[in-house]
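MODEL INPUT / OUTPUT PAIR
PAIR INDEX: 1
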Amino acid sequence: MRIVILGAGEVGSHLAKMLSREANEITVIDNDESRIKTLTDYADVSAVLGAPTSIETLKKAKVDRCDLFIGVYPYEERGLNVLSAIIAKKLGAGKVLARVQGDDFLTSENKLLFKELGIELMFYPERIAADEIVDQLRHSASSETMDFVHGKLQMAVFRLDEDSPVLDLQLLQFIKSLKPEEAKEFRVIAISRNNNTIIPSVDTKFLYNDLVFTIATRNGIDSIMRRFGKTSVEVGKVMILGGGNTAEMVAASLARQDIEVKIIERSHERCLELAENLPASVQITCGDGRNSDTLNDEDIRDYDAFVALSGSDETNVLACVVAKKFGVPRTIAEVENIEYIHLSEDMGVDTIINKKLITAGRIFKFTLGGKARFVKYMSGTSAEVIEYTVAPGSAITKAPLKDIQFPCNAIVGGVVRGSEAMIAVGDTQIEAYDRVAVFALPQAIKEIDRFFK
């Protein structure tokens, strides 16, 4: 696939590196020579130096021949990516996507308007991150979750503590310990251990500090939590460190659910803006949340969850560690440096939010077959989780799963057929129009996609 990416900032560079690994032909446009050089030094991509809205620059990048155009120019003037995407579409680009800076672009009326102008997707990373945080707070026993088909199937990730009842059990022993009805409701699909992700075999043992990836029907969530020694936390009070756009959106969403929210923000001016923009029920404290004395003075021990969104990875991680020491059951940190993710998890942060990974999942589905409905990168692993709608006559429907030679670096976790959700096993026969949840390591993605075409 030929892909043109406008912008060699953090998001554009991450996308370029990721998509180039999938044997795509990538061209990146930017008017900053240093950003271009930094990217081309470590990624196998072509680069065009020029103004982002210049028709001549876009033509030089051959947008007229590209299958996908992605506008993610960093710190752009309002609407720059949208304008570039529209021009690219008029020049002949296949699908065009654009990053926007603000919720107003994403109202139903405006999305329809831009759809008519040819833009397939507009995305606001801060909104995506805010929605993810609110969703993770609903699933307080796991470090990360993902819902399929409106929650009929749920993927949940659990870190094994030193008192976990499954430690040192082989997977086969664990399966044999399940009641017959439990075995139909959930399944272990992967384990992340020492920065490596494995699809477990029957003799794989559960070890301390493993991240265990599971998939369950709606009825199976309670059983799997119990089996892994996890208890759910009712989140009624949330403290947020940092008052940026993401924090504002999280606070507004939680307030609508009658959850008590307090934001700690250093800037007096920003505190005034937040007080004006947010409901009166949201408490705004002007202070330095990096100081543990401040957190103590703000009664952090009384809160069920602590969300660190300060703009500094180091501050967010350390603040979550402090919150844990104060006894807060649930911590979430925004960490934008991907290299810090595993370190943050090892330090005890429950959930990591990375805008680049979340945004990349939204974009990556456009490089797959038309039946890929959703892609998510789970922060504790290099793997991807994909939801497919099965096309009639596709290879996945030709025989039971055990007989179709599905890639060994991937696993079909579950299937939704009509209103029925089921956990996939070797004898499962996939049918046309099923919604299928697939967990896959990166090297298997292209091969998997062929099964659904």
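PAIR INDEX: 2
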Amino acid sequence: MADVSPPDARTRKKPSYPIGPDLRHYLTRYRRERELPVTYERLRHFHESHPLMDHEGRNTLWESVAYTAEEIPVLNEALKRVYALLRVDGDFSVMEHLYVDRIDFCSFGNSTPFRIKIVNAYNDNPDYFYIKKADASRVYGLELEHLLSPNRLNFLTAGTTLVEEHIAGIPGDIFIDRWLHRPELRPIRIAKELVKFNERSFVQLLGDMRSYNFVVVITPDFEGSQIRIRAMDFDQQAHNGRKSFYLPQFFKENLPLVDFCKKHLHFKTAFQYQREEQTLMLARAELAATRLNVLLTAMAGDPIAPPENVVMLREGLAEHFKNDHYLKCESMGALVRANLDTLRQNINQGLGALKADRVLGAS
């Protein structure tokens, strides 16, 4: 099995791409772009910070930050209004009982986000949201996930600021360590979801889906629990040139999941689940055809990856699908569109599932 871990320095330090005019037009048209009372740069001016530890005393890589006494009341009120925009389209009348409990900052990774903890004063129920530097490739990843996956995402942009909701679930690495072999979870459902998640990531060109970049959502059902894997990090949307970078099965961090899948899933059943997810993705694309076309047109004109990465990836995809149409693609947006066209063509022609090495970790 080809391994794409660990990432090289270029992967860790992917540049942040500005939101261009076409993407900005899209965000405005579909009410993602809004006026916000707090910007990312304003939050950067914190007064002091201290490391945030987990309940076992380990460093979380987050720091709790503090602001001057004069600024705190105004800032907290503004953050509550941002939360209201994110959750209820700005209706602050249903948010007055909330308060800001903590503001955290993470200097690790590409987006260097702030995490805001919001608490309900009536029942102490917490929620979180994130304020980050707006990165065009990340925004494309969020929007493609919203349109093509079973998951809806709330996020807002304002100039160079990006606001994202919290994606709840068990981090993938913790799930592997503590939940994977629990008897109350049906193995076939875990394996089925890994196949589907692998396929969605590949078609959308969402890269770097190693275990700590996705969460596992467990939903109790009348016969056991249902499983869904959700991406929670979109920094590496359509940037890397390696085809395997967009297949979660090839990361060593995910190897226990891949081995688990191979143990519990028959090869033909894996093909079935792969085809099911392809069909669902195309159905979602059809429902959002106009919106998706506007997004991919903007993405095709955006330089969100070095030209050499586009060339490398198109050659890899052309070989993978045995389709020279990929060689005509000049951008990452064009490659995502080509992936969808390829799925549509194969389904219309009644062809079988596309590639075994996108199912069970075969090399």
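PAIR 2 NOTE: The two ends are 4 Å apart (CA to CA).
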